[in-house]
UniProtKB/TrEMBL annotation:
Any single Gene Ontology cellular-component annotation: cytoplasm
Span list, region Disordered: 23-103, 158-183
Source organism (scientific name): Hyphococcus flavus
Full protein name: J domain-containing protein
Organism placement in taxonomy: Bacteria, Pseudomonadati, Pseudomonadota, Alphaproteobacteria, Parvularculales
The keyword Chaperone is annotated on this UniProt entry: yes
């Protein structure tokens, strides 16, 4: 969930447009991905700062935000009566610093990005603004993130882009599409696609490893045998050792996530003994007459 853009930029609602531009310039220069390669925290901070400036750097959008007509994400509020309210920590339109026409103009952005990128995006001796980056969140199924997939996404401006989701993509991972952002005389911005991986009903990812829980019958637990277990690459046969207790974990080597360095992680299968639904009279009679039923076969509880 987005945060209050004033708080993101470290400003009060009474901040002037010049203060907003200055705060954005400093934070954007500090956290820009080009200056912090492979730094996820800086990348996330840059996106947060950019989103805040998208609202506060535009005088009309800032007014709407101050009046409560749009939320922290910049989306229109469905309730029209929000425009008459003031949210805690924000001033109303009367407290809005700067007059009509104030805020971030084309030149403001040009100045900011010339600071960020130096000579890049200039030509003919004059500064030209680089197009703004576009942020997009894409939800993908767990197995598509694991195995890789092709997705078609629609940008806010209506354009469609074909995107390759790499095998082994993680939740929160950001993909950069260079030059696919907004167009401008100084060159196009980029598109940043944040991957949101949907949870799976069976598989759980922990790093490069996959974990599942496999139900087994009491007979399988006592006598052992083979069961079929799902993996991200399909079903496999698993040997259950004799006298396996609930909680026993079996390792399937190389059945986990593909690694960037090559190879794959492992899959871990946690066994869980499941008794017959509705009960079983024959099983009850057997346990009552079983000579080992009363034997102490559990370890002492810690601290007992």
């Amino acid at each position: 969930m987005a945060r209050n853009p004033y708080l993101v930029l470290g400003l009060s609602p009474k901040a002037s447009d010049a203060e907003i531009r200055s705060a954005f310039r400093q934070l954007a220069k500090k956290h820009h991905p080009d200056r912090n390669p492979d730094d996820k925290k800086s990348e996330d901070k840059f996106k947060e700062v950019s989103a805040a400036f998208d609202i506060l750097g535009d005088p009309e959008r800032r007014k709407k935000y101050d009046r409560g007509e749009i939320d922290d994400d910049g989306r229109e509020r469905p309730n029209p009566f929000h425009q008459w309210t003031q949210r805690e920590g924000r001033g109303g339109s009367a407290g809005h610093a700067g007059g009509p026409g104030a805020g971030a103009s084309y030149e403001d952005f040009s100045d900011i990005f010339s600071d960020l990128f130096g000579a890049r995006g200039t030509r003919g001796g004059g500064h030209h603004m680089r197009g703004r980056d576009v942020r997009y969140r894409l939800e993908v199924d767990f197995l598509d993130a694991v195995n890789g997939a092709k997705k078609r996404v629609t940008m806010p401006d209506g354009r469609t882009l074909d995107l390759s989701v790499p095998a082994g993509s993680e939740d929160g991972q950001t993909l950069r599409l260079k030059g696919q952002g907004e167009k401008a005389p100084g060159g196009a911005g980029d598109v940043y696609v944040e991957i949101k991986v949907k949870p799976h009903a069976v598989f759980e990812r922990k790093g490069d490893d996959i974990h599942i829980e496999a139900p087994i019958t009491l007979k399988e637990a006592v006598l052992g045998g083979k069961i079929t277990a799902p993996t991200i690459a399909g079903d496999v046969s698993v040997n259950v050792p004799k006298y396996s207790s609930s909680g026993t974990v079996l390792r399937l080597k190389g059945r986990g996530m593909p690694k960037k360095s090559g190879g794959a992680g492992d899959q871990y299968v946690k066994l869980k003994i499941v008794l017959p639904e509705g009960g079983d009279k024959a099983l009850e009679e057997f346990v009552k007459n079983w000579s080992g039923a009363g034997a102490k076969n559990r370890k002492d509880f810690a601290g007992a």
